[in-house]
Amino acid sequence: MYEGYLPISKQDMQERGIKQLDFVYVCGDAYVDHPSFGHAIIARLLEAHGYTVGIIAQPDWKDDASISVLGVPRLGFLVSAGNMDSMVNHYSVSKKRRATDSYTPGGVMGKRPDYATVVYCNLIRHTYKKTPIIIGGIEASLRRLAHYDYWSNKVKRSILLDSGADLISYGMGEHSIIEIADALNAGIDVHDITFIDGTVFKTKNRDLIYDAIELPDYDEIKENKRSFAQSFYKQYCNTDPFSGKRLFEPYGGTTFVVQNPPAKPLTQTEMDEVYALPYMRNYHPSYEKDGGVPAIREIKFSLISNRGCFGGCSFCALTFHQGRIIQTRSHESIIDEAKQIIQEPDFKGYIHDVGGPTANFRAPACKKQMTKGACPTKQCLFPKPCKNLEVDHKDYIALLKKLRVLPGVKKVFIRSGIRFDYLMYDKDRTFLRELCEHHVSGQLKVAPEHISNTVLQKLGKPSVEVYNSFVKAYKDMNKKIGKEQYLVPYLMSSHPGSTLKEAVELAEYLRDLGYMPEQVQDFYPTPSTISTCMYYTGLDPRTMEPVYVATNPHEKAMQRALIQYRNPKNYDLVHEALIKAGRQDLIGFDSKCLIRPRRPKKDAGTSYRSSRQGKKAPAGKAAAGKMVTAKHKKKTIRNIHKKK
């Protein structure tokens, strides 16, 4: 018996005196009993409300028996693909199979199927015809209505239809899962559970749907990209728990998928209760023989302080999943968890992170959000900060100070992203000083994503001028406190709106900065984001204006290569991109040029390095060893003058 962990076998059930579980949770991730994992939160919360829950982690989807190891649950199966969409987990943006899976014991790839939620549900239905199935997690949440699927390049139906499940609990799910459990426990048929916020149900009875906005029929949006964009934007404008309306999507006029309004955000007391549940804070001991679950390393010594994000980046699905209203834990709750972390035998004194989707958001954007919700068609930070935006870092500063002085803590890092624009809108520079002085270790990662205002507008990010002002403020603050610390900018290539012209602009910016990023993220079209809608339709759903989209793999490779133009391996792609963009002026020997000209064919013996210097490389090994570059010659001349 693995004391403290939830049952994963019949033997575990017997040792706990459980004849039949109330719920069986089937998950695409390994069982990690930590509040950074959705399955742990939902299972522990149900347990706290008196329900018994067992975990079937990563069942063999090719074996019917794998789904029966805990028997039939009394109330229903809960199914999730895991902490990531299974397709993002399996494939890179170039659709190549990833080599490892951090959510699997030993990092082994292939322990879950593609489209895991659908496959698991079909596996359950094959054996248990009538047992209720409730699906949740990020895969189900972001595919709850018809959506563009990048990997198949098709518009797919609601996952509720393809999976054969009865309900979706979308978003974070704490409120809705308890209401669903209580309804099932009260004897209400799962098909009659149509009234819970934060859920999606299906019906053939149009009369059941009331006070709702009708979306275009699936057949229409599948064939008409304009209709798809319009439908998506209606969904986007109804993601707020206070102002969001009920939506329904017809399928051939005979089946209807109905999305109830989002569940209300958790209060601080509720958030504290969720994180105070009796998690074991580690992966299940049965995985020890396989080397454990790699994902635990990133979060074991990190603290979640908030949820939600009012940043509104176009490429981010948080609006559809956690929402735009910030929910926070109390200082006491976070400090209690920090004290637990300190007691861990392998804790070395470093808290790796204190944050969430955006680390420096510790309150709603304005007072009205907690009663009237976030504005459906306006953003808090973009394109300019809203006049009602309240910028205040005092609470976050106070929290960080309390954590720094805990016995056993050497340093508290902030590794989840900060919104540099929000920081710059704070006229008080105390947080910037605290950040540089105490919470950065040499490098701070920030995400400008791009520097072309044309692209930034599509990204939903502030203008490059805001980023430039932050770069200066960060540099000045480090100089003031006597530290040498650097910024590491995250950059994205091929986002909708980016042509080769904008990609060249970014390369020139990096040239002037004297920086070449080691990694570049090519835009990845994942379900339920504005950017993915733009990628598929070629339209900005907010304005319905056309947007340029780079979909050709070769053009995407050129845009990516431009960001790393100094890498010799990218020379051919960069050369081709500059020619196509009409920027031959950036090919030459001037300091403003990105690359040197190609060497003439007659100079076949000239090395790439010497051609960049306009000098032939001597033939033969001996001569190669004596080669002196122009730069070295200048240095030698300077030394001679010094000696004189």
UniProtKB/TrEMBL annotation:
Residue numbers spanned by region Disordered: 598-644
Gene Ontology MF term list: 4 iron, 4 sulfur cluster binding; catalytic activity; iron ion binding
Family under the similarity heading: Belongs to the UPF0313 family.
Residues at which [4Fe-4S] cluster binds: 309, 313, 316
UniProt name for this protein: Radical SAM core domain-containing protein
NCBIfam families the record matches: SAM_YgiQ (TIGR03904)
UniProt cross-references to InterPro entries, sorted A to Z: Elp3/MiaA/NifB-like_rSAM, rSAM, rSAM_horseshoe, rSAM_sf, UPF0313, UPF0313_C, UPF0313_N
